[in-house]
Amino acid sequence: MAVAHDPGLSFKRISVVGLGYIGLPTAAVFASRGVEVIGVDVNAHAVETINSGRIHIVEPDLDMVVHAATVEGKLRATLTPEPAEAFLIAVPTPFKNDHEPDLSYIEAAARAIAPVLEAGNLVVLESTSPVGATEQMAAWLAAARPDLTFPQTAGEDSDIRVAYCPERVLPGHVLRELVENDRVIGGMTPRCSQAACALYGTFVQGACVVTNARTAEMCKLTENAFRDVNIAFANELSLICDKLDISVWELIALANRHPRVNILQPGAGVGGHCIAVDPWFIVNRTPDEARLIHAARLVNDSKPQWVIGKVEAAVAAAARRKGCAVSDVRIAAFGLAFKPDIDDLRESPAVGIVEQLATSFPGQILAVEPNIDALPARLATRGVALADMAEALRTADVWALLVDHKPFREAVPTPRAGVEIIDTRGIWSA
Ligand code: SAJ
């Protein structure tokens, strides 16, 4: 149910807890709409950087918005929470070794804001979370503040309103998607939802669609699990086609001509901070039921190892053809980021592939990554060299295309005689 924003409810001073990839853009967008925003983070470097009008993360145009918000005095960062009308919690929710969700950051944030909560406040959880996390957060808050009432016991009459409102923005397009995307609002009671709708109505142009907290939690996980399953289908097809000597790129293009078929693209694996993580929150809670979602995770997680096997075979073939030792074969890896046209190397399958190859082929690897100036330490210390595209194409015997960045898509190279190509994205061999 889409809800009209209640003009009677307006927020003049809010607090965003966790100033990372979601919290900082959200804080900046609220501030740009004239709301006074207190950003809270445990990272002193982040707090200092933001207060000086700069940013500590990479996202197009975010630096300008944060700069303007701090200069106008609308955004201020601090290590310690202060009173506010609404609190948005956007802290990490990683998983532990056995894929058990780790809610310790949410617990720490709840305990940190509890002392400054006042009757009438709204607390919104935005972090991607397993089902039940919002109720758990409300329980932590209630335990810390027995003098206040919460929705789990007081229902509609609670002093504090609590809701789950997941972010669903695409890295690289965060500022636009924050404003334009529809927003799922999962209040613990209808009044909690109403308050959260009023809060997001400050800047959201998409619809604010109301449900309960558990459905909203599951909705976020479902969106990313849906994408993971679809990418796994494409990745599995790439393995099948390789075995059957069929071009998977041609196959997918042909199949996608069917009016109800829309297969995604295979790649070197699934990276980033969301799609490779969130489906595990479903599998962990319902292991017997989530069989397809689990299988998709395993398919996508195994793809980098398959690519490494292909590169190793290509190196052996190149050595045979040149009549040289394997250690004399030069390998070029094109792309290190976790997806095209960004500079984010964290949780990137390409980095893992190059790192493992560098152990097997020390001093033989050139990495071409047009979006960075220096290699991460885990590659530099293993003897990988950062090269430009022309040098890598001129000198390498094996070309491993790992990420389809724009420069690679736009300048499709003509292979030198004998060059071995492993094209994980189908742009140089399709
Ligand atoms: N990938 C493929 N083939 C494809 C599409 C993607 O191999 O056809 C790979 C990418 O190369 C990358 C990984 O999947 O390694 C994830 O990239 P992505 O662009 O699919 O997603 P993210 O992680 O950047 O952002 C996702 C988005 N979720 C969905 O599209 C359902 C975004 O809207 C979410 O807000 C974000 O996760 C999040 O924060 O949860």
Summarize the structure.
With about 425 residues, the chain is of the alpha/beta class.
Protein described:
The protein is an alpha/beta fold and 430 residues long. The protein has two domains: 2-206, Rossmann fold (3-Layer(aba) Sandwich), CATH 3.40.50.720; 225-423, Rossmann fold. Helix content is 42%, strand content 13%. It contains 16 helices and 13 strands. It has helices at 23-32, 44-51, 62-71, 104-113, 133-144, 151-154, 174-180, 190-200, 213-244, 248-255, 278-285, 291-322, 349-360, 377-380, 389-395, 406-410; strands at 13-17, 36-40, 75-78, 86-89, 122-125, 161-164, 183-187, 208-212, 331-334, 365-368, 385-386, 398-401, 420-423. It has an eight-stranded mixed β-sheet, with helices on both faces. A five-stranded parallel β-sheet has the order 11-10-9-12-13, sandwiched between helices. Helix 4 links the parallel strand 4 and strand 5 (122-125). It is elongated and about 80 Å long. Residues 128, 167-171, 223-224, 227, 231, 264-265, 267, 270-272, 274-275, 338-339 line the site of ligand SAJ. Ligand SAJ binds at residues 128, 167-171, 223-224, 227, 231, 264-265, 267, 270-272, 274-275, 338-339.
Q: How many strand segments?
A: 13
Domain module count: 2
Percentage of residues assigned to helices: 40-55%
Order of helices and strands: EHEHHEEHEHHEHEHEHHHHEHEHEHEHE
Structural class: alpha/beta
Mean of residue pLDDT?
95
Tell the overall outline. Answer: elongated
- Which ligands appear in the coordinates? ligand SAJ
Q: What's the gyration radius in Å?
A: 24 Å
CATH topology type of the largest domain? Rossmann fold
**How would you sum up the major sheet?**
8 strands, mixed
